[in-house]
Amino acid sequence: MTREEYLQALRAAFTGMPEEDIEGVLAYYGEMIDDRMEAGMTEEAAVRAMEDPAVVASRVRAENGGEEKTDGEAKKSEADSRRKEIRRPAAQVTQLHIQAENIRVQLTAGESDDIVLRYTIGENDVFRLHEDEGVLTLEHQCVHGANSFRAKREAADGTKQSLSLNELLDGIGSLLSDLGRTIAGNGFGIAAQQSVIEVELPRTYHGGVRVNTSNARISMSGVTCKKAVALYTSNARIQLEDVTAASIGAKSSNGRIEVLNTYAREDLQVSSSNARIHADGAACGGLLSLTTSNGRVEIASISGADIRLRTSNGAVSGTVKGEKSEYTVASATSNGSNNLGAGGEGEKKLQVVTSNGAINVTFVP
Amino acid sequence: MDAQIKRGLIEACILKLLQRGDSYGYQLVRETEELLSLSESTLYPVLRRLEAAGALAVYTVEHNGRLRKYYAITDVGRRRISDFLVEWESVMRVYDFIRRDEA
């Protein structure tokens, strides 16, 4: 077969493909034959070294198909498969627990009577969902490198048994195919992660919520819970806005906490060990405690039966709702001005302590 | 071998060859012969894909009275190589682990 005959056969095999694509294929194979001839092969030998036109066509078509899929739909469907949405009737869940590592948790009110969890599984994320007698728990773990398949394996099993060789191989298989996908995919590296767990609760939820993250922000807004709300993070900010609950606890060991228009029927306790606390319109029927060991405490129109504001290295300033006469006041600062003083015989208690800052608290109607 | 993994390996090999210098189709086939025994019809879509992804650039040079397409690696391509090496470090750790276990 001559070079021309081969290229014609190739053209025939690619019938139906866009002309531009066919030209590309023919130029490529023409060049391959030319280069072989230039390297010393006869025309016939050079053509013989080429694959059968039908084989070439089916491979290129398959690859093209694969390519379109990889770049278009497959990528989309892969992205879809990484996005999770879990929906449960809220009536069946008395407690919602979210335990996450470095992934933000955002709780809002939805329009339905369901609890909806939405998240995207990133390259290094492992999620586990447990449901046990009304307690719905979503656990998130961030894994790296060789630990990744083990954790994924455990996630699938829900156990932490040691792995048999077969399981290990399975794990490696899935790790390899993950890697293969990553490498073959357009990104070639780690895909951009949309690192947030979105939680939608009914506007009025009869249960309670507990969220723990180790390194990411927690926010909650617009929800009324009949039971307790507890939010803990070790290294990020917490925001509560328009939240009502039986009791509320928010604790960050290294981040700022904001509490806006939030009400607890019993206690509302907020503490940060290394940042400021801002409470505007925070109210509760019991203990309202705002404590930080290294930051300002800012308040506006807060109210409670027993208010305790404490910081060891910052000012306490702002307004408390009501008349001063409603309160029995105790206040102390070791290094700053203090407008509050002590005394009174009100039924409610107001205690303000800072060891290195001013106290400037006034009362508003 | 898993097709996706193979694809990733081939792409990385082609990019590595281009990192050493610009090259053309037949030369790439020859240079990967021992390592991958790449056929023309396997290489073609790989080149197309890498081009579409911006990992390589294509230019034409007149050679012995005809045109020859040359491929050159881009910054995107170079980044792919380093990403590949990082990704496969964890695979190699797993490989080492298994090998130890078998010994």
State the share of residues found in helices of chain A, binned by percent: 25-40%
> What coarse outline of chain B follows from CA principal-axis ratios?
elongated
Which consecutive residue ranges of chain B, at least 5 long each, have pLDDT under 50? none
Oligomeric form of this entry? heterodimer
Number of helices of chain A: 7
Share of helix of chain B, binned: 55-70%
Number of strands of chain A: 27
Overall pLDDT metric of chain B: 89
C-alpha Rg of chain B (nearest Å): 16 Å
Structural class of chain A: alpha/beta
As a whole number of angstroms, the C-alpha radius of gyration of chain A is 32 Å
Regions with little confidence, pLDDT below 50 for 5+ residues of chain A: 66-73, 157-167, 180-194
Helix segment tally of chain B: 5
Which class of secondary structure composition applies to the elements of chain B?
alpha+beta
- Terminal-residue CA separation of chain B: 24 Å
**Spatial shape of chain A:** elongated
Largest sheet features of chain B: 3 strands, antiparallel
Number of strands of chain B: 3
**Biggest beta-sheet profile of chain A:** 11 strands, mixed
Question: Topology of this protein?
Answer:
The complex is a heterodimer of chains A (365) and B (103).
Chain A: H1 3-13, H2 19-38, H3 43-48, H4 53-71, H5 73-82, E1 83-89, E2 95-100, E3 104-110, E4 114-120, E5 125-132, E6 135-142, H6 147-157, H7 165-184, E7 196-202, E8 204-205, E9 208-213, E10 218-221, E11 224-225, E12 229-233, E13 238-241, E14 244-245, E15 248-252, E16 257-260, E17 263-264, E18 268-272, E19 277-280, E20 283-284, E21 287-292, E22 297-302, E23 306-311, E24 316-321, E25 327-333, E26 348-354, E27 359-364
Parallel strand pairs in A: 2-6, 2-9, 3-7, 3-10, 8-11, 9-12, 10-13, 12-15, 13-16, 14-17, 15-18, 16-19, 17-20, 18-21, 19-22, 21-23, 22-24, 23-26, 24-27, 25-26
Antiparallel strand pairs in A: 1-4, 4-7, 5-6
Helix pairs in contact in A: 1-2, 1-4, 4-5, 6-7
Chain B: H1 3-20, E1 23-24, H2 25-31, H3 33-36, H4 40-52, E2 56-63, E3 66-73, H5 75-102
Antiparallel strand pairs in B: 1-3, 2-3
Helix pairs in contact in B: 1-4, 1-5
